[in-house]
Each structure stands twice: as C-alpha cells, then as structure tokens.
Amino acid sequence: MLFSILISAGLLLADRPAEPAEQPSDTLHAVTVTADKGVVISRTDTLHITNTFDITGELHQVPGLQLGDYGGFAGLKTVSLRGMGSPHTAVYVDGVRVGNVQSGQGDMGMLDIENFSSAVVDYAQNSISFNTARPTFGQNRVAGKATFKAGSFGTYLPAARIDLKLSERLALSVNAAGVISKGDFPIADGATRANNDIRQVRGGVNLFGSMKDGDYHVKAFYNAAERGTPGSISWPSEDRQKDMNAYLQGVMKKSFSPLYTLRLSAKAGYDDIYYTSSWGDSQYGQTELQLNSSHVFSIKRWWKVSLAADIQWDKLASTNYSASRTTAISAVSTSFNLSRLSLNAAAEYSGYFDKGEDSRHAISPSVDFRVRAIDGLDIVGFARKAYRVPMFNELYYVGYGNPDLKPEDAWLTDLGVDFHRQVSRTWNLKAKVDGFYNILSNKITSAPTAEDPNIWLPYNIGKVRAIGLDLVTGADFTYGDWKGEMDLRYSYQSAVDRTPDSYSYGQQIPYIAKHTVTASVKASWKGYELNPRWVLKSGRNDATGNLADWNTLDVTISKTFRLRGPLSLGINIAAKNLLDCRYELVSGYPMPGRSFIGGVEMKF
Description:
This protein is mainly beta. The protein has one domain (2-328, 344-369, 387-398, 545-603). 4% of the residues lie in helices and 62% in strands.
C-alpha cells in the first residue's frame, strides 16, 4: 500500500522518467557507502579537504555543527549536529562506521585527516562520512607525497604517502604521519596551559581495486598516542593518557545484473585507552566486529528497492566494569528518481542485546524528497525518527551507571530550498535555505539522588526541542588564471530544555550556539592561493550561565611550484586565530590564542 501511494505521488509530480546519468569509468574508483539503507537521498553538504592542518578548522564551516574541543592537539574533539549531542552523530570512514560503546564520543583527533579528500555531512542521517583520497597516476606507476609542518607550541607534523599502480585494476596506497607537540600555550592572566603535550603516530594501508561491474576498498589503520590530560583550569591535573586503536575493514560493491547490486562491508577493530591518574590508574579495551550488507533491486530505471542487514558485536573490558553488546539492524527502503522528483522512504529496525541485561528495540521510519521546482531551484525535505541507546558508561559504570535507562527518542525534520545556477561562463552562484525542527525525548541527564544529593546518577528525565535555520550562499568564478570561491553561512539554533520541573527549563542547551556565522574566501592565481576564514559564535551558555561570544580569523597562504615532470613543491603558511581571541568551546578548557604553522609538501 505504501509503495502504491508513493508511486502515484511520484508520477503525478513527474514529467517523465529520468534517464540514468552516464558514469565515467575509473578502474581505481573507491567505494563509498555513507548509509546502510543503500539508496538514501538525504540532505547533504560536501567539504573538500585540502591543505588541512587540523580537522576542527574544516568542520567549523558546517552550518548546524557544534564542536567539542578541549584545546590543543592533545584535547578530545567531538561533533554534534543540530543540538542532538555527540552520541547521536554517527561518524563513518570510507563507508564504515566508527564505533565507541564506552561513551559514544569518538575522538576526531584520531582520524587519518592527512589522507581524506572529502567529508560528507548528512543531516537526515545525522552523520559525517570521511572519504580517503583515491590514487591518481600520470605516466608513471608510482605517485606520492611527503609533507613536513611545524608551528607554535613546539608542534611538528610529518607525513608521507606513496601510491603504487599494481595493475590497471589494482592500486596500493601506504601512508604514515606523526604529531609531536609540547602543547603548552599561554592562557588568561599570564598562566600557561601545561601538561597538554602529545606524541602520536598513525599509519595505514589502502588497497583499491575494480572488477567487472564492481569495485572494492580494503583499509588497515593503526593509531597510537601518549598525551597529557591537564583537566580544567579550575581543577588542573598531571594525569596522563595512552591510547591505541587499530582496525581492518573492507567495502565492496558489485552489480550482478541490471536488476541487482550488492554492497558489503566488514570491520574488525580494537581500541585501548590507559589512564594514569592521581585517583588511580584505569584501562579500557574495546573490541568491535561489524558485518553490513545492502541489496539494491532496480525494478525500473526510476524505481529502486533496497534491503539491508547489519550485525555488530562490541565488548568492553575495563578496570571498572566489563560488558558486551550485539546490535542487529535491518532496513527496507524504496526510492524513486524521476525527472522532477526524487523520493525515498525507509523503515529500520534496531535491536540492542547486552549480555545479561534486557534487550532494547527501536523502529525508525524515514522519508526524504527533492523536487525540481524550476531549473536550478530544488525543494528538499526529510523526516526521520532516530534512537540513541545508552552507552556502557551510562549503564554499567560502577557507582554511576543506571541499567534501567531507556533509549533517547528523537524526531528530525527539515524543509528547504536549494538554488544553483551558472550565470555566465565565468560565474556560478549557489544558495541554500533550510529550516529544521528536532524534538528529543527521554534525554539522558544526570541528577542528584534522593538518598544522597552528593551522588549524581543518569536518568531519563529530559526533553529538548531544537528549532533552527541554516543559510548558505556562495559563488565561484574562473577568469583566465584566476579562480575563486566565496562562501557565507549563517546558522540559528534554538535548542531549548523542555524538561518539566527542570532548573534550566526554557534555557538554551549548554554549548549550543544560537548564532553561528562563517565567511570564507579562496582565491588562486598561477599556483598562489589565499584562503581566509572567519567564524563567529554567540548565544552560548553552560550550567552556570551565559558564555562569552567568540570569533576567530584563520588565514592560509600557499604556493605550488611545478618542477620537472610530475614533481611539484608546495609551501603553505597558516595564521590561526589571528585576532588572538581567548575563548573556550568547553567550559574550563581554553583554546589556543594566536598561533602559526607552516609546511612544505613534495608531490611526485
């Protein structure tokens, strides 16, 4: 019945079935599966990652995205979309999810940022997907690059990558990188942020392959670091942390016929964190296994049906407690791609089975659409129900966990317009306007217990309503040797506590900025490139009251010299927080003031 209704609506709005776009052949194409549904359309933004010194700077420009950053290269970095919290925001690397069952807040600083080519922010799926750069070859069968960057606070960032073309259908990429930073930077009143050093090494191997009517990508990654954890400025510490994570994953896509396409992905990973603290040492080891599949059936050129089935097993063994979880996910979806209408509807079942505990189940329906009103102007929207099950710390941490917690229950909705038009041979214009409304029930919060007000435990007592508006406008031009991009983004978020009898009822959720403005320009001429970026955030608060507004200006200058043959030399310099604004993304954890970093990159 649902399929019949959707087909009828699609045919009424459509002029005729759309012809499938002709895809260029690329024998080393990397598979990217950003969602388990297989045919999700969704509302997305794509960031192209180039000359990146840190991941925080790239993500600041995304409307509706909030960053948690504890300062410096050593500080924990988390992300949250549209007021939903970090555990609600899924992070993918090359189509496979990055898991963390301990707290649900994976550290973005552990990602392989040097080798990513793009990041896709999916508002409907509430996710961010990072994609590894594919090898490109000229006349030679070998390509690669070596970079060395250095800057303020005793920071050094070496990195290298080599790509080998093993055959017309197979390429191998090997990379390694390091982060060395003393990390001590000046803060207010002449003090210094101490015990913020880090020594980190990471490396990976990527195998890109193609086969008849398909391709695959196998990735192995290792990351290890030793760092200080200085605590807040109110409660400084000399604690230390050692962390390690390693994983092996693979993604494959193959069309067995015009009717049927199979996508498979699998992952085996292990994370280990060891804290040395004055309160006592502790260790957390996480084991993760994933197997994901989707089966896409092309009923017509304009109609697809997808079935997906995933299973994941996680185990946490720690000094404080141990737990394991099996997650089973299945989904069915259908999509229609007509000349003026793209429509997708899906229903997903999720089951969470913790060893020795009650199981948790959720059904998540979703629908999204794109209508071409006129050429260059699209109307887009989505609605989706989402769940966030409690993490292991919230459930089982001795003296704190509450095994009776319910999953957080959320509705995500969005409606907007998307304008894009080439106004001349030189200029292209774009603009997006999105209004969104999210409601979160059974919010997991901590509150004092009736037996002892000094003991806080997590409870399902909260509700959050997030309503907002994202505006994006930009232009790019090409004129002779000149190329330029201009981008202006504004985001308004009213993420309000609607919990009855809450002390913060009607107040903005901590750290969610009401107003965010980003402005960036990228101009290039004959190998020279200038890229200033300004970010403003205002209207934030924490549990104690309002937080100061802040803004930062980052400026990057680079020059690429073409040498003999495929050899090139790049030089880039960045001034971070050029206006020396003293600010905090998390209360008590100051961010660095003005700093500089520069480097050289040799490509061959």
